[in-house]
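In response to reviewer comment 3 from the previous cycle, which asked for concrete evidence that the modeling workflow produces usable outputs, we include below a single protein chain processed end to end. The sequence was submitted unchanged, and the resulting structure tokens are shown without manual editing.
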Amino acid sequence: MVELLVSVVIPVHDGEHYLGEAIRSVTGQSHPEIEVIVVDDGSTDDSRVIAEAFGPPIRPVAQRRAGAGAARNRGAELARGAYLAFLDADDLWTPSKIERELEEFRRDPDLEMVFGHVRQFHSPELGPAAASRLACPPELQPGLVPGTMLIRREAFERVGGFDIDVRAGEAMHWLLRARELRVREVLIPDLVLWRRVHATNHSATDRDGLSDYARVLKASIDRRRARHPA
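The workflow returned the following structure tokens.
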């Protein structure tokens, strides 16, 4: 494990249109000590070719299609850094994202994970009619999501990986588990993530997976009850 090295995991499935821009938003960070692990989750397009064309510090790996949670877990297993971060292949970081979040760890040595804020944007290829059908709130929003998070590696390992059995709720499920374990967190007011809204967003196309949220919340309640029976 390399101190101050941040390992960034980018899961991608058929993300050739956006992956290059996402990678550049990572390699352009003001904090220089970064490795980028792009996990190609069974893509059928040129996502892997795009990742390989970057060369170091990009480390492309491939797996059979297993979902974003499994891809994040694979990347975390391969990571060498003391800190872990995650970015979806269609989103973008602000240039000082990592540097700003590392400041919080220096300020509070007991801190274990940092989240930031998100702003959504319509992807440029959308025409006016398509954009009008896709919700895109203009205001800054709290981002309790993997894309804004920076976490100490040992804290991530204590919580464990993302649940691979849920499709829409794996990030929420992970955060609930982290909070049940009292992982020390802070939400900073800074914009750190631009979330792209486009026609093929997972949340827009996988409506059936939304039932996972109810299952995730129930599982958390059940775990809490088991720890603290009435």
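The first helix runs from residue 19 to 27. We consider this sufficient to address the reviewer's concern, and the full set will be provided in the supplementary archive.
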